[in-house]
Amino acid sequence: MTLRELLEQHRGEELELYARTINPQFVRLLRTIGFDRRWARAEGAYLYDADGTRYLDLLGGFGMYNVGRNNPRIRAALIEALELETAGKVQLGVSPVTALLASALLERAPSRLRRVLFTSSGTEAVEAALKLGRAATGRSRVVSCEHGFHGLTLGSLSAAGDAAFRARFGPLLPGFSHVPFDDLDALEAALRGQDVAVFIVEPVQGHGPYFPSEGYLQGAQELCRRYGTLFCVDEVQTGFGRTGRLFAFEHWGLEPDLVPVAKSLSGGYVPVGALLMSRRVYDGVFDSLEHSVSHGSTFAPNDLAMAAGLATLRELDDAGLVERSARLGARLLELTRPLVDRHEVVREVRGLGLMWAIEFGEPESRRRSWRVLERAQPGIFAQLVVVPLFTDHAVLTQVAGHRLNVVKALPPLVVAEEDLERFVLVLDEVVAKAERMPRAMVSFALRAARASVASAH
């Protein structure tokens, strides 16, 4: 039976089958907040459900679809790679496609980055950075930032700075410590002992998003150089045009020692990640024939992922998507900053390229209602915005992080300007309604909070 036939046979059973075989609590969550759609197809910046309703996708697979969903040029590259019947994954051998993608990445990176190690995901790329960084320096400590996020495998989780992700999975790896983001004094205090192998930082913290003050990242790089610590900039979410530059670190003229990338590198088609590293790191780990296979992953690199990566880089160039991200991001900020003055509940609008967020805070005129909601579940007001955007206006966004009253958007870089303009109009409408905190909305929020607490036990 073909895949098409299997899908047709089980049409209408998607959620039930997922709940029965994979994660019933996640399906319960989707039903509680009204996100239990049966998805039929996707194209560019749009999703279509089984009823034919078109949704504007401002979530972008958590930033995975920079070149748009089901990009036809990436698909054509994958078909071509399959038809070539290449001898991929010989294991005791190499594929030319791998070296071609590595060359294309290094051509676009600072001269300090001279080698590439491929992985299958962003968290694997982070794990590689931590492991190789320890070996290259002979040191064991790793410093990262509070509220940072680097993935959910054990090493990445040990570096993560949000207790909500770490709390139930200890003990985590020894040798990890956290400093406040955007605080050079705290970072220097952590590095001064000259025993830190790696300082890992997101150039823009994804769970926020939170942006660095001018001079912070440059200062962090200088401190790492001074104390012999490898400077690792995690570009898993911010890379490949998301912030209006190919890599976010370009905004600050940085030259890191380690750069994990992933998410949008394959256009969303094939799992892929990579670690770009300096010659110092490579030479400190792969220093002999005996150590030539000190790190790797069975399925990475594979020719499909490499072909997709090459096609994605070409698409970013040919379609001018990095420049488009910068232009549309500036337009989105221009359209949304007036919401701060228009709505008492809006505290701030911030963004860089097409990485955008709106933050809410306690309104003076409705303190009592706000505090009732916050006691039930901190950050629940943001859900009062995300849910109606989706259910009433067919716009998919996300709450930016655990207990944060922040709504975040990571649209595909192909998003149309008129769609962003429509988003701002409906956002204005939804925030105005949520700000009044009508009884029905408050009741929904309390039900969602209770369901969330129940599902956690």
The main pleated sheet reads as: 4 strands, mixed
- Compute the CA-based radius of gyration: 23 Å
Biggest sheet, spatial arrangement of strands? 1-2-3-13
Tell me the overall shape.
globular
Overall number of strands: 15
* Helix percentage: 40-55%
Explain the overall architecture:
By secondary structure, the protein is α/β, with parallel strands linked by helices. Helix content is 45%, strand content 15%. The protein contains 19 helices and 15 strands. A four-stranded mixed β-sheet has the order 1-2-3-13. Strands 6-5-7-8 form a four-stranded parallel β-sheet. A hairpin with a 2-residue loop joins strand 11 and strand 12 (355-360). The chain is globular and about 70 Å long.
Features:
457 residues; alpha/beta; four-stranded mixed beta sheet; four-stranded parallel beta sheet; 19 helices; globular; disordered C terminus
List the helices and strands and how they pair.
Layout: H1 3-9, H2 14-21, H3 24-33, E1 39-43, E2 46-49, E3 54-57, H4 60-63, H5 72-84, H6 96-107, E4 113-119, H7 122-137, E5 141-145, H8 154-159, H9 163-166, E6 176-179, H10 184-191, E7 196-201, H11 216-227, E8 230-233, E9 258-261, E10 273-278, H12 279-285, H13 303-318, H14 321-336, H15 339-342, E11 346-352, E12 355-360, H16 367-376, H17 380-393, E13 395-396, E14 398-399, E15 406-409, H18 417-436, H19 439-455
Parallel strand pairs: 3-13, 5-6, 5-7, 7-8
Antiparallel strand pairs: 1-2, 2-3, 4-10, 9-10, 11-12, 12-15, 14-15
Task: Briefly say what this structure is.
This protein has 19 helices and 15 strands. By secondary structure, the chain is an alpha/beta fold.
